[in-house]
Amino acid sequence: MRFVSFYDPHDTVRPGTIQGDRVRVIDLPSLRDYIALEPQQRTKHHTEQTIALDGLRLAAPVMPARNVFCVGRNYLEHAKEGARASGIELKLPDVPTFFTKAPTAIADPGAPLRLQADVSSQYDFEAELGVVIGRRCKNVSEDEALDAVFGYTCVNDVTARDRQHAHGQWFKGKSLDDTCPIGPWIVSKDEIGDAQNLKIGIAIDGVQKQDGSTSQMIFAIPRLIAELSQGMTLLPGDVISTGTPAGVGFARTPPEFLRDGATMKVTIEKIGTLKNTVRIS
């Protein structure tokens, strides 16, 4: 099943499920409220009201209650290219490298990303698989980790590289407004099947820049959930962005950063395409 959030005629965000070319409305304030329910309670909130999907303005499918969790250097080839570009020796971590993006960074699918030229001159792109947590959980084992997953979505971890490098830690360079588009929808885990074997990539103005597979992750999804949940409660609707494959702009020769008017298309197998245009002023 595919889940969306959309704007109604009053600009209120409403949740729903996609059924063919229509959206069946869910009678709850948000998709996060829906995810938080016990699975057997969810379907009773599916109404008979449907709306044509074509023409709907989609919102980010879920707004987490807090920051988006992200994983750095989680694809081997990306870790290698980053080390080369930075002139350092590659040393793979023993545990995942977590950072976060602020909720104000979240942007809608299809929306223009309004970025400030006076804040950064090095906006970069990162196609990522987003994992949406389906229940409150803590100290989850790797064997049980996928039971905590509600579904999967596309994420573009847009990054201000100059800010990232200047600050040393990554939060500032990763958390500027409009630098975390999510969507266009969430696909339930039963429809995805093996999320560890999906094609993932990004095209900029029609030119493929990243072309990888989630099978190339250093730390697989169950390990990420298990590590993140140790001693820390995960909440329904939390999003974990699981890292990016090789091909990012700063590691290219010469480096390639986003320009005003560029169109980005993140595509993940079995999920779809997240499209956004960059507006830098």
Keywords summarizing the entry:
twelve-stranded mixed β-sheet, five-stranded mixed β-sheet, 19 strands, alpha+beta, 2 domains, Fumarylacetoacetate hydrolase, domain 2, 7 helices, 281 residues
The overall number of domains is 2
**Broad structural category:** alpha+beta
In CATH terms, the superfamily of the largest domain is Fumarylacetoacetase-like, C-terminal domain
Large-scale geometry: globular
SSE order, one letter for each helix or strand: EEEHHEEEHEEEEEEEHHEHEEHEEE
Q: In whole angstroms, how far apart are the ends?
A: 39 Å
Which helices and strands, and how do they pair?
Blueprint: E1 2-7, E2 13-19, E3 22-26, H1 31-36, H2 39-42, E4 46-52, E5 58-59, E6 68-72, H3 76-86, E7 97-101, E8 106-107, E9 113-115, E10 123-124, E11 127-133, E12 149-156, E13 159-160, H4 161-167, H5 171-174, E14 180-188, H6 189-192, E15 199-204, E16 207-213, H7 221-229, E17 239-241, E18 263-268, E19 272-280
Parallel strand pairs: 6-17, 8-14, 9-19
Antiparallel strand pairs: 1-2, 1-5, 1-14, 2-3, 3-4, 6-7, 10-13, 11-12, 11-17, 12-14, 15-16, 15-18, 18-19
Task: Provide a quick synopsis of the model.
This protein is of the alpha+beta class. It contains 7 helices and 19 strands. A hairpin with a 2-residue loop joins β15 (199-204) and β16 (207-213).
Describe this protein's structure.
The protein has 281 residues and is α+β, with helices and mostly antiparallel strands. It folds into two domains: 2-59; 68-280, Fumarylacetoacetase-like, C-terminal domain (Fumarylacetoacetate hydrolase, domain 2). 16% of the residues lie in helices and 36% in strands. The chain contains seven helices and 19 strands. The strands form three sheets. Strands 1, 2, 3, 4, 5, 6, 7, 8, 11, 12, 14 and 17 form a twelve-stranded mixed β-sheet that branches. Strands 9-19-18-15-16 form a five-stranded mixed β-sheet, with no helix packed on it. It has a two-stranded antiparallel ribbon with strand order 10-13. Strand 2 (13-19) and strand 3 form a beta hairpin. The termini are far apart. The relative contact order is 0.21. The model has no long low-confidence stretch (mean pLDDT 96).
